[in-house]
Amino acid sequence: MKIGEEAMPAEGIGEHSTSVRTVLIVVSDLRGHPGTTVGEIAARTGLPQSAVSASISRLRSVDAVITETDPRDRRRTIIREAPEVSERVTQVRDTPIDAALAAALGTEDPDRVSETVTVLEELAARLIPGLRA
User: Fold this and answer.
1) Distance of CA 77 to the CA centre of its chain
2) 10-residue averages of pLDDT along the chain (133 residues)
3) Residue 36's CB: how many other CB atoms inside 10 A?
4) Predicted TM-score (pTM) of this structure
5) Cα(67)–Cα(51) distance, rounded to whole angstroms?
6) Separation of alpha carbons 90 and 107, rounded Å
7) Within 10 Å of residue 113's Cβ, how many Cβ atoms?
8) Is 124 exposed, middle or buried (0-12, 13-18, 19+ CB in 10 A)?
9) Is the distance from CB of 66 to CB of 80 less than 8 angstroms?
10) Can you give the residue ranges of the HTH marR-type domain (predicted)?
């Protein structure tokens, strides 16, 4: 996760009260539990509810998630991934991790970095159900 944080593009996103890591944890939980609430994410992740709320706000600001009032209980807000991939999500997904990975590996060898990326992709495909390429 730390390497992913290092690779994350930060241009033009401004200052936020939540860390990239917190947002990534919230996104990961949301993918595994669509149609969830801030309180449920907080309970599952152990993050403070305020940090989850700030992360959801940050994700809403880049159109990565949508929120809607629960029709069965109007006090609850349901959170889902946005049906369309936002420009920010596309930018994040398209950002290579090569430089951050090279730094973590302590190498400038592009072949070694490429081999490591391949191994990580294979591992992710095996461990993450429904992984999006």
Assistant:
1) 20
2) 75 66 88 92 95 91 90 92 84 84 92 92 82 55
3) 17
4) 0.71
5) 17
6) 28
7) 21
8) exposed
9) yes
10) 30-76
